[in-house]
Design brief:
The chain has 193 residues and is mostly helical. The chain has 2 domains: 62 residues; 130 residues, no CATH class. α3 packs across α4, α5 runs antiparallel to α7 and α7 runs antiparallel to α8. The longest helix has 28 residues. The radius of gyration is 18 Å and the shape is globular.
């Protein structure tokens, strides 16, 4: 569990600099240059992600049961992950209605993804992992919206074509993950055992 927590501190810590230390971040960008800052940020994030993967895998070998979720929570989680993947896709498809309406669909997608995994999982390591991401996403979304208000950011209106493409990409990602990748990568099949 120690490696998992250390990985979360590094990964989410790097991703929290804009939440808690925007002035320090700007000073570091000026000192290191934008590319130097991106390089340092990437190295810390990659190290954190590697520790999360290794630590989560190790923690799963010594599971600590917290509760037994009802079967219906798996179905709810699948539906919520579908919604989250459409939101995540909206962050990358320019000109879609979801991005225009939500402002920061990637962060909201992470929030929904983390919540979905919390309601359907029962082990301590899973709650530490997904709970950490949920708490981070709540604070990050609030900070991002505050930055937008301070800067007077107004969303460009969305168009139907990019919105339909966003939904198609999100549904395609969901199908690939639900019916293949989740089982292949994590050993857990959302539909069936």
């Amino acid at each position: 569990m120690t490696l998992l927590v250390l990985g979360l501190v590094l990964f989410l810590g790097a991703h929290s600099v804009r939440i808690f230390a925007e002035g320090w971040r700007q000073a570091m960008v000026a000192r290191l240059t934008p590319n130097g800052w991106k390089g340092l940020y990437s190295l810390v994030s990659i190290a954190g992600l590697a520790l999360i993967v290794i630590g989560f895998g190790a923690a799963r070998q010594q599971p600590v049961l917290l509760w037994v979720p009802p079967v219906w929570t798996r179905h709810l989680a699948s539906l919520l992950v579908l919604v989250s993947l459409v939101m995540i896709a909206a962050a990358y498809v320019p000109g879609n209605h979801l991005r225009a309406r939500l402002g920061h669909p990637m962060i909201l997608g992470v929030k929904v993804w983390a919540f979905a995994h919390l309601v359907s999982n029962q082990m301590l390591a899973e709650w530490v992992l997904f709970g950490s991401f949920l708490v981070w996403a709540v604070f990050d979304y609030r900070a991002a919206k505050a930055r937008d208000r301070a800067a007077g950011v107004a969303a460009a209106p969305g168009r139907l074509g990019p919105t339909l493409l966003t939904v198609a990409i999100g549904v395609g990602l969901w199908a690939a993950i639900a019916f293949w990748a989740h089982g292949a990568w994590f050993g857990v099949k959302p539909f069936g055992r």
